[in-house]
Structures are given as C-alpha cells and as structure tokens.
C-alpha cells in the first residue's frame, strides 16, 4: 500500500478522507497548513486557523496517525493574495480558491508532502479521478465531477496539471455529503457536526472592501445608471446550431458592454470601483427602487460604476466570452483543440452554476465560448470550465 499525506484542515471532509485511506490499508500522515495569519477584514465569529488546527489534532489522535504542521503563509500571500489584489486593482474578479488549489495544495503542499516520503497527497474535495492508458503507453489522468451533485468541487480543481493529478487522491469523491457526516459520527470524529468553512480559501469569511483596503485605498467615485433602453443593446444575430460563425462575428459577440458617463445618469457615489464585481447587487446603499440595482460594469481607471435595475436588464446578459491564448488550460491534454477547431461542451463560469451548453472555438487570438443561451454576469478574471459528461476537460481565465 502507499504512503499518503492528507491535508487535514480541521473539517469533516478531510477527516473522513483520512479514515477511508486508513481503512484501505494506506500509511496515512496528516499535514496541517497554516496559510494566513492576518485577521484584517475577517468577520467576527469566523473560526481562525488555530481552531482548525485543534480539530485536526483531535482527528489525528482519534485515527492514530501522525500530524505535521507547516507554515505556508509566505507562499500563500505571494501566489494567491497578491494575485487577488492585483486582479481587483485591474477591475477583474479573481477566484482565489482555484488559485489556492493550483498554487498551494497541489504545488507547495505537494512538495512538503514529498519531503515526508509521500507517494500521493489526498484532500477532502468532492471530485473523482480516473486513469486510462494511451496507445503510446502513457497514463492519462482524468478529473471527474464528484458523485454528490450538491457538493461537486471539480470546478475548483480546473487548473490542475497531469503531474498534479498523478499524485492526487480524492477519497470522499464517490460519497454524498450526508454519508460523510454519518461516517464521521459513527467513528466518533470531532469534526462530525462542524460547519463547512466559507469564504476565501484559508482566510475565511471576509468583508471584502475592508480586506482589500490592506492594499487598495478607498476612492470616492460616481455610480451611473444605464437604462435598459440604451440604444447600443443590439447584438449581431447569434448563429444557430450547425452554423459556423466567422471569426469577426465571434469577436463581436464576445465583446463586453462598454459604457461612458454620458450613457447614464449619476444616481449615487461609491468608495472604489475596484471593490465591486459584475452582477453584484449588495453593498451599493442605493434604495427606493422597485427592483434591485445590479453592477453592469466597473471602470477602475475613471473610478466609475455602471448599474442597471432588475435581473432582466440586458446589460447583465451576454451570448459569448473570450479567453487569451496563454490563459487556456487543458486538464485532459488528449482533448486539446487545435487552432481552427471547435467542439461542444457543457460549461460553468462560476462555482455551483448549473452546466450550460456552449461551443468552444479556438483561434489564433485565443478561444471563445459561444453559449446556447445568453449568460448572466460574465465576469473577467473568473474561470470558465468545460465538461464532457462527468469529465472536466479544460478551463480558462475569462478575459472579457
């Protein structure tokens, strides 16, 4: 059997994953990561990491496995948090959880695990892995959705490489969450009834503007409302099924809406355009409306926010998105499309979004996803992940 180092986080999923690995006869070693010390912007009542560590210690003791502690906070700040700040400063909305998995759990953490002689690293993620042998004898690793549709976390792993997947184990990926809770209770694990963590990976639940103010200063700016009758809300006709769109049409369909202050009326003020994200409806402090106001666009250069009233506002909806060539990643390299090719996939542009039908077109200038139905709140900086059935085939950073 293998030596497996598991990231014991102090949560129920990794606790049960450790128990399952032991049941399978593996030599299991727990490794607890300290990734964040600063409490700036952390909401009151959110458990700091030392509570997590205490629970990890209790589980390790119960399972009779060794527990090591490693401080990766310097790498986490450089690779995840500094990236977050830089993206928000550009007016984009990053996904720190995807970055945390690619850069920390399956890179820095993996290297720490290898120092302990690990054959594999394991996590409590709800996803699965499959292997197949290619005609040339190489092994291909496929990332599959978790069996629990309510907890599938494959999206968060959409940037993993073949090398990272080769070392990864996901013991709870074939279970439903209630089963995981039941096993934890039956085995007397301290985490059995502990709430799932929320918020930013390893930082916790935060007040985002306060958190971002560590690096991004508040700047008063104007909020402008764009009416749904804005004359430029006219798109080129979207091609039907089987129709091959020209590159020019694809580019046109993937363009975000661009506004200027002359396109709308000032209705309020804000503390900094870089604190807001497309599709957001909370935190504006502007009331007295029949329907909620939603962020349609942010301009961090001019420090202006553009909003529209109601979820059906045309400024919230777009038929396509664009990704740059260097920002496209194939989890399954055997499925990679060459320039000029296209294929149909099921796509999500944020965690927990139901899968959406779309066609992926790869061109010299990057890739374009053209959806079967217009999508709400396409957000630059987030990740689009494309699936074929249960398999997560690839992903890319949304450029526009």
Structure description:
The protein is α/β, with parallel strands linked by helices and 400 residues long. It has two domains: 3-210, Rossmann fold (3-Layer(aba) Sandwich); 217-397, Elongation Factor Tu (Ef-tu), domain 3 (Beta Barrel), CATH 2.40.30. Helices cover 23% and strands 28% of the residues. The protein has helices at 12-23, 49-63, 73-89, 96-115, 162-166, 177-186, 208-212, 247-253, and strands at 3-7, 27-34, 67-71, 120-122, 127-133, 139-145, 168-169, 221-225, 265-270, 293-299, 304-309, 317-323, 328-330, 342-348, 356-363, 366-376, 383-388, 391-397. Strand 2, helix 2 (49-63) and strand 3 (67-71) form a beta-alpha-beta unit. It starts with a strand and ends with a strand.
Q: Can you tag this structure with a few keywords?
A:
400 residues, alpha/beta, Rossmann fold, Elongation Factor Tu (Ef-tu), domain 3
Short description:
This protein has eight helices and 18 strands. It is α/β, with parallel strands linked by helices.
> Please, how many domains?
2
Low-confidence sequence ranges: none
In the CATH hierarchy, the architecture of the largest domain is: 3-Layer(aba) Sandwich
- Beta strand %: 25-35%
| Count of helical stretches | 8
CATH class of the largest domain: Alpha Beta
SSE ordering: EHEHEHHEEEHEHHEHEEEEEEEEEE
Structural class: alpha/beta
Percent helix: 10-25%
Radius of gyration: 23 Å
């Amino acid at each position: 059997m293998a030596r497996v180092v598991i990231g014991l986080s102090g949560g129920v999923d990794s606790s049960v994953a450790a128990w399952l690995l032991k049941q399978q006869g593996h030599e299991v070693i727990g490794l607890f990561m300290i990734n964040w010390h600063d409490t700036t912007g952390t909401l009151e009542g959110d458990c700091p990491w030392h509570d997590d560590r205490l629970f990890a210690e209790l589980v390790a003791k119960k399972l009779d496995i060794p527990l090591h502690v490693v401080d990766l906070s310097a790498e986490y700040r450089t690779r995840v948090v500094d990236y977050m700040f830089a993206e928000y400063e550009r007016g984009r909305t990053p996904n720190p959880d995807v970055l945390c998995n690619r850069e920390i759990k399956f890179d820095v953490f993996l290297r720490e695990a290898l120092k302990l002689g690990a054959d594999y690293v394991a996590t409590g993620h709800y996803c699965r892995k499959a292997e197949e042998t290619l005609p040339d004898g190489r092994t291909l690793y496929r990332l599959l959705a978790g069996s629990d549709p309510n907890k599938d976390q494959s999206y968060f792993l959409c940037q993993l490489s073949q090398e990272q997947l080769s070392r990864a184990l996901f013991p709870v990926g074939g279970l439903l969450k209630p089963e995981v809770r039941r096993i934890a209770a039956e085995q007397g694990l301290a985490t059995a009834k502990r709430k799932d963590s929320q918020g930013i990976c390893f930082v916790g639940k935060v007040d985002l503007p306060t958190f971002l103010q560590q690096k991004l200063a508040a700047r008063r700016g104007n909020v402008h409302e764009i009416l749904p009758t804005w004359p430029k809300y006219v798109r080129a006709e979207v091609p039907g099924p089987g129709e091959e769109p020209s590159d020019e049409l694809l580019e046109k369909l993937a363009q975000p809406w661009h506004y200027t202050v002359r396109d709308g009326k000032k209705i309020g003020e804000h503390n900094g355009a870089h604190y807001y994200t497309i599709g957001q409806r909370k935190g504006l402090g502007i009331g007295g409306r029949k329907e909620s106001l939603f962020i349609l666009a942010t301009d961090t250069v001019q420090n202006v926010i553009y909003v529209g009233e109601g979820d059906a506002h045309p400024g919230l909806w777009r038929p396509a998105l664009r990704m740059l060539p260097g920002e496209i990643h194939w989890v399954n390299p055997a499925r990679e499309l060459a320039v000029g090719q296209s294929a149909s996939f099921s796509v999500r542009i944020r965690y927990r979004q139901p899968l959406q039908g779309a066609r992926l077109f790869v061109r010299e200038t990057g890739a374009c996803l053209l959806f079967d139905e217009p999508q709400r709140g396409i957000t630059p900086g987030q990740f689009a992940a494309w699936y074929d059935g249960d398999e997560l085939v690839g992903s890319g950073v949304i450029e526009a």
